Amino acid sequence: MGHRTSLYDTHVRMGAKIVDFGGWDMPLHYGSQVEEHHKVRQDAGMFDVSHMNVVDLKGANVRPFLSLLMANNVDKLKTPGKAMYTCMLNAKGGVIDDLIVYYMNEQWFRLVMNAGTRTKDLAWLDATAREMGGVSVLARPDLGIIAVQGPNAREKVYQALGEALRPATEKLKPFFATNIGELFIATTGYTGEDGFELILPSKAAPYSWQGLAEVGVAPIGLGARDTLRLEAGMNLYGHDMDEATTPLESGLAWTVGWDPASRNFVGRDALERQRAQGVPRKLVGLALDDKGVLRDHQKVICDAAGEGEITSGSYSPTLGRSIALARVPAAVSVGSGCEVEVRGRRLAARVVKFPFVRNGKSCLD
Amino acid sequence: MSETPKDLRYTKTHEWVKTMPDGSVAVGITDHAQQLLGDLVFIELPKVGAEYAAGKECAVVESVKAASDIYAPVSGKIVEVNTRLGDAPETVNKGAYGDGWLFRMQPRNPDDLKSLLDAAAYAALVEAEGH
Fold this sequence. Notes:
By secondary structure, chain A is α+β, with helices and mostly antiparallel strands. In chain A, 22% of the residues lie in helices and 34% in strands. A six-stranded mixed sheet of chain A has the order 10-11-12-9-3-13. A six-stranded antiparallel beta barrel of chain A has the order 14-17-16-15-18-19. A five-stranded antiparallel sheet of chain A has the order 5-6-7-4-8, with helices on one face. By secondary structure, chain B is an alpha+beta fold. Chain B has one domain (10-107): CATH 2.40.50.100.
């Protein structure tokens, strides 16, 4: 038996197929992964992501602490409630984890990190906090997370959890959060749709989940979560990047806060060196023209530019074809053709920009 | 619960086999198998005329999550494939034993069919796998 969230019994009762996910017993789907995917794109769905690692950082030195540890510049966070996506790097510029930082006030920043990297993340944060002082690192296993996503997500949250939430959250732009009593509401997500991520006491999660189900929010498993994030062109840690790859090779150059040059974050030297020498590989999108399904680790052949590898491949329910993220030589250009080796055969694909889908609409030409 | 029709034969690898009036056999995947795989999005069928030994990979069904091999239940030649699955692989999810058949084979030796599982034996296998 793996770790279980406070919603485990609820998932089983709702017919979930449970699978092991990084040591957690989590719902893969509740019947049809494809129907769940469409439900999020067209209406509203909810995900139990309570396995993720919520960490509160408190104290006078939290900002300089994050400025040192995060590749993105925490000084971009000026308005309380603002959130930022960033990588946490090792000295070689490799990605220890990717996460979201929420700036609540100068004494309190909240991190939401991956479940599978929990132990090493906390060790890394703790070691730096001890060295620097003025920061306490508080893991919050007492909290659960329900992500409610889709074009109707916000309205359904108000219907289920109360109109009282509306004034403080209705006008929240993407990547903001606010705290209402014991409920932390953020306009972040992993689907490319509008919606809320609700961080709340684990004990309260089943009651809120039930309320959301009663107003027609469909439970969505990790299977659809993966196809939704892939269509949205969002990286998955351990697949699209890890400690052996830098953000520059992972489609995440936009998350590196180069300015000011004086901010010496962990991994900066390595990234500067790689940038000066020329980044050898990059992450691109692939759309399969032939029939079939692209999968992780399949070989990509890009004519003269050389070979690459698929880091995340699946079927896109929205587009009705297979798509992938792939790491290829830097010389490969968007729009060019390539081939993917599938079971000894070569299938024709195209290098495309990602995201593949945004707010329910195809981004492919 | 998955269905296991009494008039079919089964393999341990979750194919079903139905003997047709002309002596050929129709082959598909069981209801249990389609439930495990989830939504199918692509099916790679064998070529008509190709010959396979029993137990050899002869087709691939791909769900959103993974690709799974389909094995020839008996030795023989492929005489027809279900071309409708090219554009509608979800047919297998909707009716694994009906419109969702994959291909028809002409068995080299009709006696091979006797070595396949009957419905009760297959149901017991599924039951055992679940524990």
